[in-house]
Amino acid sequence: MASLKTLLRARLVCIFFSFALTVAATGLAGWALQVLHDDKVFMAKTVPGGKVEAQDVVVVSALLCAACGFAVAVATYAEIHLWRERRNGHSPWILRLLNEIALGVAALFVLGVAIAATVIVVGRSAVLSAPGFTQSTLNTLAAALGKNITYRGTTAYESMICAWFAFAFLTATWVLLVLAGLHYRKESRERAAQGVAAHETHAEKTSQSSDHEVAQQV
């Protein structure tokens, strides 16, 4: 098993990337929602009765914001926990347990949303509609105006990629935290064994001293 110092350093790197990637994913997903709103307003002004139907990417972008926002909070807590652990030289088991649970939940949340985002963002597009216009006409008009109606062309796609990388680093952080817990438990067992051995040695010396005193009195 790697040394505790190595585990702490590796965990610090993973926490940093987890934090950076989740912040980026949250920002990009929020940006995608803002751009979609602007496109809806633009469509309504350009074509009478024009609408942009993109409820699926709205939902998945909102979920990306929620999942990655939660992961940001968890990564922040994990960094505070790591700082206290390095300063004190140990970590209470209850704090490690809470950290493990929070990181596990955050990683699974991000994974589920990343899978949903992959299904929706990679292969789907917004649907344009307006009275008296065909779908192909509206798509041609959007292209002529420089509007990309595919979800892959929005920042929701970059947010999805960041979410996948964030999941990888959150999982790595969780694994390193578990390994650190095993290291602490091993040290605890060794200290307990040394304490028992020292107690037995002290008891043996005390017994020998008592026998010697009795022998002298006799």
From TrEMBL:
Keywords: Membrane, Transmembrane, Transmembrane helix. The chain crosses the membrane at residues 12-37, 57-80, 101-123, 163-182. Residues 193-218 are annotated as: Disordered. Residues 199-218 have a biased composition (Basic and acidic residues). The keyword Transmembrane helix applies. This is MARVEL domain-containing protein. It comes from Apiotrichum porosum.
